[in-house]
Amino acid sequence: MSNDAEMTDAQGGAEANGAEEFVHEKQRLKILPGSSDTAASFAFEKEDHTLGNALRYIIMKNPDVEFCGYSIPHPSEAVMNVRIQTWDGVSVWDVLRKALDDLCDLCDVVEEKFTKARDEFNAEHPDRMKKKGMTKNKLATTRTIQQHRRYHEQGELAHMKFWKLI
């Protein structure tokens, strides 16, 4: 005799343990043809110079990297290409993974230092703060930090999805 119970499907819109519904996105990172373990080109969809230059800078700090460059093939297309070449025996996959992790860590440090400096300034200059609520600058800063956190969380999800495919 089995103790198995019949399970029914959850109703539409139901969430498990209060978790948000996971939205599946199109894969935004593609490996371009002609790649090898030590030289590869990647196409990042919906990215521009903001990520391209920062990622190139972080990758070039790695002593195992021989070359790294990025380009935006055409201004009307939301695609950024990154080319990485490493010295013999060093995987471009490991270099890209490390660079993305380092860039996320750098963004976290910048956010923490900015928030600390802003809070110290506001504590030293209470006359600049309105008595009822936040000023426009603090409100804009708070929104920017919230957007960064959401983008960072989305980036981590995309990052995890990408490495599962390899």
UniProtKB/TrEMBL annotation:
Please tell me the species this chain comes from.
Answer: Zasmidium cellare
Q: Where is the major localization of this protein?
A: nucleus
Q: Does the keyword Protein biosynthesis apply?
A: no
Keyword Transcription in record: yes
Residues in DNA-directed RNA polymerase RBP11-like dimerisation domain copies: 40-112
* Protein name (Swiss-Prot/TrEMBL): DNA-directed RNA polymerase RBP11-like dimerisation domain-containing protein
Coiled-coil residue spans = none
Keyword annotations for this protein, in alphabetical order, are: DNA-directed RNA polymerase, Nucleus, Transcription
Q: Where does it localize?
A: Nucleus
